[in-house]
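Escalation from tier 1.

The customer reports that the assembly of two entities below gives different structure tokens on two consecutive runs. Tier 1 could not reproduce it. I'm attaching the input and our single run for tier 2 to review.
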Amino acid sequence: MTANNNSSIRTPLGRARGLGSAKDGTHHWWVQRVSGIAMVPSLIYLFTQLPQLVTHNHDAFIMWLQQPCAALALSTFLAAAFYHASLGVQVIIEDYIHCEGQKVALLLVNKLAFLLLGIVAIYAILRINFGLIG
Amino acid sequence: MQNNSRPLSPHLQIYRWQLTMFLSILHRVTGFGLAVGALLAVWWLMAALGGAKSFDHFHDFTHSLIGQLMLAGWLFSLVFHFLNGLRHLVWDTGRWLTLKGAYASGYAVLFGAIAITAALWFYAGR
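Tier 1 run:
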């Protein structure tokens, strides 16, 4: 592409920024990868803890979750996972919902639903760690 | 607005099934399944917060046939999406973007996911 490209209506500044029509550039692609990589260590740790995770014994489960390592691994994993999930579901909505009104509504529901789920999960983990159970 | 008389590209149904397209679709399906499964994870934590009774209630569900199927599907989805996500990260660096690379890593990810899911299922149930 030459500097004097008269066939394009894009300004040189717009071309240099490379953010495209959505003003987002490669941000979505990048944060999807970052949130994915962020889950790797905590997920591997949680896999090693699987017998404690699936226990039916309430006291044993609370004891496990009250360990700093477990609480931090689970909350960082869920925070990254819910963010990653909202990014993924966003792409699915954009791919399959073609009615503009429905699409925008679902995109909003998607963002807010995962934000809410994340807040509720962290709230539960915090309360359990402070011993405020029941 | 929309011109429906335009020629369409061949629809999905016309292609012969191949491993690479199957895994690509499976990546999206498992990802969506995990997103829905997030509800189960939040229910689990809220049940633990609620006390022994609500925790029992949650595990009555996970021990039902539907609950066990959901847990097994969720575990497989988690392992597969994790491994195939790593495959995507390798592709992002420009490696394995060949027929041989895509197929070899595809078979590795698929059978690896099945094996690791089975191993984790038995490890969890000890």
